[in-house]
TrEMBL record:
Organism: Panicum virgatum (Blackwell switchgrass)
CDD domains: O-FucT_plant
Region annotated Disordered, chain positions: 533-568
Pfam family, one: O-FucT
Protein name according to UniProt: O-fucosyltransferase family protein
Leader peptide range in chain numbering: 1-38
UniProt record similarity statement: Belongs to the glycosyltransferase GT106 family.
PANTHER family, per database record: O-FUCOSYLTRANSFERASE 16
Domain of life: Eukaryota
Amino acid sequence: MGSRQRRRYHGGCAAPGAAACWAAALLLLMLAFHCVLSPPLGHGGRSDPLRPQSPTFVQSNNLGELRRNVLAMDTNAHASNVICDGSKMGEELWDSGTGNDFYGCSNASTEFAGAEANTESNRYLMIEASGGLNQQRTGIIDAVVAARILKATLVIPKLDQKSFWEDSSDFADIFDADYFISSLSEDVKIIQQLPDRISKKSLPYKIRVPRKCTPLCYENRVLPALSKKNVVQLTKFDYRVSNRLETYLQKLRCRVNYHALRFTETIHKMGEILVQRMREKSGGRFIALHLRFEPDMLAFSGCYFGGGETERRELGTIRKRWKTLHEANPDRERRHGKCPLTPEEVGLMLRALGFGRGVHMYVASGDVYGGEETLAPLKALFPNFYSKETLASKEELEPFLPFSSRMAALDFVVCDQSNVFVTNNNGNMARMLAGRRRYFGHNRTIRPNTRKLNSLFLNRTSMSWDSFASKVQMFQKGFMGEPNEVEPGRGGFYEYPLDCICKKSNARTEHNKDTADIMENHLTDREGRDLDFMEHTPLPAGSSNETESDYSHGNGLDIPEMDDVISD
């Protein structure tokens, strides 16, 4: 790959060294013959990501050879952009070119009635937020909106403590409850607990509303019971408010999400320490990667990652937890872009985009399937590889370790403050952070265009590195966190909070001629890409203590045990 020219010698073999010369020539001929006969990487199907491979696309048989190949490439000073510690694209890779032209705007209008005027006495709304940290976050945000719609007083939400996560944390253990209440005092009346005179009367009346319930849906399904019973508890409250609402309600969502809902001082302080240590090590800026390559995620995806019969058996066993899932069809899932990239593929994508070996990377992840062997290619591509466990001591993390949500909150803080956030899925944390980073200035957020990239990785042996990198850069247009990546009204609100983003009056007005094509490609490539798996399988019969209208019959949106394992 280097540009240095070898010194030429003219003439044949000199007599004194003729034997050695001819032996060397014969050896070269044998090596050339071997290369012709050797099968290319990926021959006969998808390459094995659990076996270390070098970025030169020549299959490595051991980790040492992988590292030697990477180091050999990176020490060539005049190689292509995969080598550079900065980027061939320059600062444009780290920052959105037009992001500064926009700002978050979620203030209430003058027509927005205050909480006192909008709250009826003797109407109390309780909710049970389900899932992991970020799924619970959506429930908390939507609970405020639901209380506003119903003109009710909201009781601080209860968090899921019984599911797969087995986290005993209460709201106040993760979020600043006092600030939450005071920050929203002009929007919705919120209290810590029910008044004694109400709680002693009877148990709250439980209802489960359908997913994506509209304001009219709440008025028809919940308001009659709330008016009669005074206290209603909405169970399994996640994505129970419509994605599309009037602008004043969307702005309320943003005030809750981006301003009122903040972590406790303990979590925030530890998160800031991790960010500071990353900046000290990197000299200023770093990438944060939400890898999401845990066994449960891979099993649910129904994809195949090249691990042979062992992988099929192990992931197949995990997949049996979900009784209603269809039989896995890996080829179809990959064609539709539903398969997450392997750690190696994420690394190759980032190198192709222009991030060099010297870039520092923070990885937010659970237990990666395949362990260190799976991570080895990514670490070879980005050796400055960190996590909260490597940045902090056991003593520092000890208060957080027993609680999955608090550990996830630390990752959230670091990913939120990273210069570049890379997500390998489209789950709850990815959506929440993508929307937040758009709201606060379109900070660079990269989501793999898996539909296009999966095809590219399958055929990567048939092209040069420069050609591969060029295709990656082309396919990632519209997936880099730029403004106008989706049309208004398209995409999930938490990922694209467009009602809460305004353009500065002095912003540049030139039109990007590629914008329309990028939007079209982005929306096309999003089809089938939704990894919020909880919304695609029928809901089984519910418990007897909830009303018949609690379920969304036939809408294909609920499966409780699925939420517990997959949500984040």
